[in-house]
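Anyone? Bumping this.
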Amino acid sequence: MNATHIRELPDHVKRMIAAGEVIEGPHSVVKELIENSIDSEADRITIKIEDGGMQRIVVTDNGCGIVPEELSLAIAEHATSKIGTVDDIQSIYSYGFRGEALSSIASISHITILSKPDGVDTGARLICRESIEIAPFAGPTGTTVIVEHLFYNTPARKKFMKARSTEIRKIRESCTKLALAHPEIAFVLESDGKQLFSLQKTETVRNRISDLFGGAEGESLYSGSVSDMQVSLTGYISSPSNLKRSRLYQHLFVNNRPVDYRNLSFHANRAYDAMLPHGSHPALYLFLQIPPNLIDVNVHPCKREIKLFDSRYIESLIYGFIKKTLGEHELSVGSVNLNTDRSSDSEIHDINSERQTTAVFKQAEKIEKIETGETNSPDIFKDGRSLYNDLQDWNYLGTIFRTYILIEKDNSLKILDFHAAHERIQYDRLRKNVGQVTVQKLIFPEEYSVTPDKFSILTENLDLLRSLGFDIDIFSEESLIINGVPIGIDPGQATICIDQFLEAAVDVTIDKNAKDYFDEIRDRAIERIACHSAKRAGDPMNRSDAEALISMVFSGAYELRCPHGRPFVVDISRSELVKLFRR
Amino acid sequence: MLIKLEKSSLLRAVLIADSVIQGKAVNSIIDNCLIKVFSDCLEIISTDKDISIKTNIPSESDSEGIITCDGKKLAQILKELPDGIITIKTDNNLMVLKSSTVKGDYKLITTDGEDFPEIEFGNFDLIQINQSQFKKMIKKVLYAAAHDSVKPVFNGVYIQAGKNSTLNMVASDSRRLSFTSEHIDMVEQIVNNAVIPLKTINEVYKLLDAGVFNFALNEKQCCFKIGNTTIISRLIDGNFPDFEKVIPKDFIDTIIIDTKKFINSLRRVMIFTKEPTYKIIMTFKNDVLKIEARTPEYGEASEEIAIESSSSQEIMIGINGQYLMDSAKEIDTISFRMNITGAMSPVTMMPDDTEDSIAVIMPIQIRSAE
């Protein structure tokens, strides 16, 4: 056997290995280059990518440029203009400081830099292939970096690159994050000649959010700020009526640097508490300003993660910020204003009348000795439900306006909106069904006929429908057959549910190849189906239905908000009632 | 107008009438009971527009007329009065009640009966049916009906004239179905089939007792004459699906189970199930039926019962335990037959001596999505 010797790696190999840490893919190149541009105080940055950045990445800015004499240093290892001494690291406000980015990129790609500083007639052009060539350059002020043939010399890494569309998505994400942090900079992003976004300079982050995600999105956000001694937190958060289906809209910036902070979502959810239906997440755009000496950015080469001096403190700051911001915009749920003058025209439909009649009937039977058989009529409906219920700690008072259920519980009067409550239960059932579905097979399968265009939408989404608990098959050229429905859905509503599914599928117009496409349809379909399968205001609701609903609502398994985030239980405490009567 | 009659018969008639009244109708006059006074009888009438009910009771009156009053109030005061003869005097907008034994006047406000809608208790070709027989049929199917399905035909009981003078009765909510059939003379004389609303069936069920009653159907309405009470009801529009097609005829296994043992085991195991599924798993293997339930929040239960099986093949079926319970309770034989058609196909249950009563229950399927 040959002995293996320990050898020092050649420099270029060392650099390639190091580069692997900083440069994970085209998106990290884009990120590094944009950060350089921002550090150069540019107010306009253009990013152009070809073939998801694998072929070519061009980032142009109008920043301060690089002096021709120093251009060759730009791609040297640990060469940077951003810090000078170790102490400077303690006070970094710039993105870069390690002096790794350009040298790393240069070691695994063909890089070209064109730069002209302000106030100088000619700049320089650096072309780095096998060797480095420098030539004069007469262009506009600023710097353009062209990165071509990324990973040409590390085929293994190249092989691991995700699909082009994934890479474009990541680049877009990186650009979006930096654009959010810098509304004062105009950003243009182009992919294969197609403009993905073009953002004008603006004054506020809210405007930038509107430009990125639509005007309504920006307007609906709540803004707020909290500060403490040396630390301040400002930002925008979702109103409870405008929640998201994914965590993609949760951003934390520390000194304007986008960072991944694992516990962000957890603490945000905690702050939103019951306002957050299952499966939805608030959008968060949080900007933490903190003296640089209190954080360590230098834990990850990509600077994606940071170390905070006291994470518990920051977490409580975030939690407090969200609570406060929500509190300023949302009314508290606990109390209501009752107009005492109007109470006279409210009528309580006495559900006990039903019982009284039965009781009266019983009496009559006794007097008359009528043999009507072993039971009174309502009892033949009696199912096992009540048998298996535990003791209840509430008292059903009645239904008013055929819309609200009145309940006495815990020394207070609770008013329950039965449509919204039922909608929540149906919604959670359907959601729970995702992953593992419980299907009730039907005795009488339902035929569902559709027009050819809708038929194709349905057949494309057959698996999705099945994953929701619909046992559905193609029956003919223009009809399907429903053999089963998710448990809890009235079989009579099977076709209505499919209608709603179709509506949801038609609504979702986003890129069909995106991974979110089916999730989006599924989520919307669940919302629609829940809404349509829930009892509506005005629908007859008998005592046993009402009691079943109440026991589910107060079982603790459900949030007391409808899937759109509106509360469905209003609580009037005994003391509030006493006050109304001026006692 | 002066009326004399037996208190208890009036109370019964008023209670029957009042049970139909829904209250809070837009047309408030029909929240009242209508009393038609003839020289030798009274007719107590009420309606909720879908059902109209009329009870005829003997009385003595010096003249004829029509009055309406709040049936609930009338029933309340009648209930409190001792049995015996009472007299009713009508006077403008009041009816004055007097008991023969209690000294007192009870003046109830009445309204003019002329505003009460005219109800046609019309002419029907009636056939005679045994009351207890019909009542038993209702009880066997009623539990399987839906209460508030958006498909109206499921919110009722389907009746159908079968072959050889039989009457078929079916109820289903599409998750389960219950069927029963009895020989009834002359049944072929009635209209072929109809779906009767649940409320009507309930009223009828309450009234059915012993002896015979008269029954009739036309395209739009059904009529029940039970004792001195007549019910006219609207039928539910729409066609009930072809139930015969969905009752399986071929089975992969037929088992015989002790009814009582089955119900008792099921009752215990069901404590470990949860709404709305009440899911239990039945496993049939080598003359043993295993019933299991598992709910993460509660825990699990499992029981085994000896059965007689026609096949040695192991079959496992997920099913709503409550549905099994409802059907098993309606079986009046010591043991019953359960027919299996497959893990994802209907289960049928019937008494072991007849095929005239069949319950069909669709299984529940649990699927893991990838």
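Late reply, but here is one note on the structure posted above: The radius of gyration of chain B is 25 Å.
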